[in-house]
């Protein structure tokens, strides 16, 4: 499929269109509570931004969600390698991954609250959301490794580290990259949802819940905007770091030679 | 060091590719057989990538090969593909580049990822990888494919120089290259065993 890269002005124009539509809807409905206008939502964000509480909440939730994602990366990598080495392991893992993927986040949260404190809940939920996505992506990547290159490596007795850098990583990383993109978004959605249910003090989820019970929709929209921005920022930062690591380890990937 | 093939048999379904093939290879030799005889399968068996239905292969030791396909890592340059098979390869970059120059490949062609090289350039890289690798036995499956006559002659000269004294089998139909190599020819059509001079 051809992917067209849109220019920044075009993307800004699209965003401006939707903001204008949102503003128009807020004015047309004419209520204070819903929908709150973008101007009020941004004003609420501006009011919160300089406070220590705001940054503490951002750090609290980001740290836990990113930790859950990182643990998910490590665990799914280990499981995908085990599944490659043993068909039995792969067969045993498949239904578990399907089950984790299909189970609603709320069910996990309620079950997890029996054993896990509210403060750690978002780590576990982010982890659980990341693992099946990343495991699937890694298995796809591993399966796509060039069998002829693997034969060549066997004949020439290329050491494991070099095989990893020259054959396995270039095969696995494109699928892993896409998996990370999906998993990071899921981690943020489910992690904050877990916080809304578990209500750990000092979290973004807690702030969302407080905004809801005080009918402060401007704050609700402001925090939602913060979550979207954090999710996008972490996704970009992680993918950029991954790209850098790939280029260092494997050289330029086909089709990426010109990328910064 | 010599490569011993004893009573090698390979069948696919009801079709017998070769049966009871016995060879002793002490130096470099050309394998010649008509298309479809099973040269590639024979080389794959020697490399340990396929199992024969009967027979044994002994004395192959450490192997290096030019496969029917180039089998280069597409993201690595031609030189990096060669260095990949060399322990502590980076120290030998200059010498590898000199060999590429001998085969008529220099400058930007050495820095481009293999995915962006022409067929002939890829073949040169595959050939040099097999020549530079530490190996007791070398196998070459149509190594001159995609090379123009001049490049093929240079490649043949390099092969003659680097493969002397060790077992090497080169499968080709290229009569000019066979002449340029000057190696004994093992004709596989109609024989079950042969012994190169």
Regarding quaternary structure, what we see is: heterodimer
- Helical amount of chain A: over 70%
Shape of chain A: globular
Q: Tally of extended strands of chain B? A: 9
Beta-strand residue percentage of chain A: under 5%
| Run of helices and strands of chain A | HHHHHHHHHH
Strand content of chain B: 15-25%
The whole-number mean of residue pLDDT values of chain B reads: 90
N-to-C terminal Cα separation of chain B, in Å?
A: 15 Å
| CATH class (first level) name of the domain at 1-62 and 137-143 and 166-197 in chain B | Alpha Beta
Give the H and E element order of chain B: EEEHEEHHHEHEHEE
Give an overview of the whole structure.
The complex is a heterodimer of chains A (260) and B (197). Chain A has 10 helices and no strands. Chain A is mainly α. Chain B is α/β, with parallel strands linked by helices. In chain B, strands 5-6-7-3-8 form a 5-stranded parallel sheet, sandwiched between helices. In chain B, strands 4-1-2-9 form a 4-stranded mixed sheet, covered by helices on one side. In chain B, a hairpin with a 2-residue loop joins strand 1 and strand 2 (15-25). In chain B, helix 5 (149-162) runs parallel beside helix 6. Mean pLDDT of chain B is 90; it is low at 192-197. The A-B interface holds A 148-149, 151-152, 154-159, 162, 166-167, 170, 250-254, 257 and B 47-49, 62-65, 67, 69, 71, 73-77, 80, 84-85, 87, 113, 115, 129, 133.
């Amino acid at each position: 499929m051809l992917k067209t890269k849109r220019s920044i002005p075009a993307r800004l124009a699209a965003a401006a269109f939707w903001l204008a539509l949102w503003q128009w809807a807020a004015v047309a409905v004419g209520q204070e509570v819903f929908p709150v206008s973008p101007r009020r939502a941004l004003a609420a964000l501006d009011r919160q931004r300089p406070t220590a509480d705001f940054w503490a909440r951002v750090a609290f939730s980001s740290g836990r969600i990113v930790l859950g994602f990182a643990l998910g990366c490590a665990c799914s990598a280990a499981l995908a390698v085990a599944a490659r080495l043993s068909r039995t392991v792969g067969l045993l893992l498949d239904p578990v991954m399907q089950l984790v993927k299909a189970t609603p986040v709320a069910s996990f949260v309620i079950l997890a609250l029996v054993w896990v404190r509210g403060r750690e809940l978002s780590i576990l939920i982010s982890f659980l959301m990341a693992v099946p996505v990343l495991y699937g992506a890694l298995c796809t990547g591993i399966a796509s490794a060039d069998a002829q290159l693997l034969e060549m490596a066997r004949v020439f007795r290329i050491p494991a580290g070099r095989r990893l850098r020259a054959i396995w990583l270039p095969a696995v990383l494109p699928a892993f990259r896409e998996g990370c993109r999906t998993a990071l978004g899921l981690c943020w959605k489910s992690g904050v949802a877990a916080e809304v249910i578990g209500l750990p003090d000092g979290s973004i989820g807690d702030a969302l819940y407080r905004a809801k019970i005080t009918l402060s929709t401007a704050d609700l929209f402001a925090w939602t905007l913060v979550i979207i921005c954090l999710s996008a920022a972490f996704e970009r930062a992680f993918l950029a770091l991954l790209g850098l690591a790939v280029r260092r380890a494997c050289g330029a990937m086909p089709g990426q030679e010109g990328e910064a | 060091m010599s490569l011993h093939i004893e009573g090698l048999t390979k069948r696919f379904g009801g079709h017998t590719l070769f049966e009871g093939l016995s060879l002793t290879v002490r130096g470099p030799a050309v394998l010649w057989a008509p298309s479809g005889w099973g040269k590639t399968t024979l080389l794959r068996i020697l490399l340990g990538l396929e199992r024969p239905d009967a027979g044994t292969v002994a004395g192959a030791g450490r192997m290096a090969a030019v496969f029917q396909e180039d089998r280069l890592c597409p993201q690595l340059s031609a030189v990096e593909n060669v260095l990949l098979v060399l322990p502590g390869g980076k120290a030998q970059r200059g010498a590898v580049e000199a060999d590429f120059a001998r085969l008529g490949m220099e400058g930007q062609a050495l820095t481009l990822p293999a995915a962006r090289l022409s067929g002939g350039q890829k073949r040169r890289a595959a050939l040099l990888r097999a020549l530079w690798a530490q190996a007791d036995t070398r196998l070459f499956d149509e190594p001159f494919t995609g090379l123009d006559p001049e490049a093929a002659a240079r490649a043949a000269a390099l092969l003659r120089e680097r493969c002397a004294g060790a077992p090497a089998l080169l499968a080709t139909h290229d009569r000019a290259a066979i002449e340029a190599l000057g190696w004994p020819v093992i004709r596989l059509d109609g024989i079950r065993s042969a012994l190169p001079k």
